[in-house]
Amino acid sequence: MLRWLKHNHQALTGLGAMLVGVAALFIAWDQSRVMRAQQHGAVVPVLQVDGFIQSSSTRRDLGLRVVNNGVGPAMIQTMTLIRDAQDATDFDPLLRHMPDTVDRSWSSVNGRTLAPGGEVEPAVFTWARGELNDGELDALLDEWAFWTVEVCYCSVFDRCWTTTSDNEMRQPVRRCPLVDHDVFERFGNSERGSTPIPEAGE
Predict the structure, then answer these.
(1) How buried is 54 (Cβ within 10 angstroms: 0-12 exposed, 13-18 middle, 19+ buried)?
(2) Contact 147/83 with Cβ under 8 angstroms?
């Protein structure tokens, strides 16, 4: 064995160099992996979706609010409106419980980037406080309990999650589904009705 080692020291040197190279490669890979994890962790968005009802001495507001409580921008891909476990395309069942004079405001969310600490209210309904009696208000709140919203959003590194307004834990997904419409934009268009938008200069 000693004789073999004496006559093959060049092979041993080469083997040692190869082991050092493999070790260096592993260390570089591990450091790169840790760095990527740190980069992802530094820009993770966390969306919270809540339904709300607010009352003052003169009015009531009912709506949806989306807040980014994370440390990175949230790129909202899709927002799905759900009633009683079924996708909904409008708020008609909810509007039936509201007074005819209800004011509606909306904000498109699909494709929106929400900065850390930022928030958006996709839909808000407002009416004078005395326009619904207690029984009518209870019926409205019972109907409101059937509604949820699911949001799919991504980080700047294309890591994506879904979360819902019923406070379920966010779930990682490979990608967000593509949709051909924004239900809240459709809601806003229905509010405008058929009134034409004037051209510039008119």
Answers:
(1) exposed
(2) yes
Q: What sign for the dihedral angle of Cα 10, 12, 17, 22?
A: positive
Cβ contacts of residue 146 below 8 Å, gap of 6+? 83, 84, 93
**CATH class of this structure's domain 47-192:** mainly beta
What is the spatial distance between Cα 188 and Cα 12, in angstroms, rounded to a whole number? 76
DSSP string, 83-136: ETTEE-S--HHHHTTS-TT-EEEE---TT-EE-TT-EEEEEEEEEEGGGS-HHH
152 within 8 A of 78, measured Cβ to Cβ: yes
Structure pTM? 0.73
Q: Give the tokens for residue 132.
A: 């619904």
178 pLDDT tier (thresholds 50, 70, 90) = confident
**Tens-place pLDDT, residues 38-87:** 444 468 999 999 999 999 999 999 999 999 999 999 999 999 999 999 99
The rounded distance, in Å, linking the Cα atoms of 154 and 150 is 14
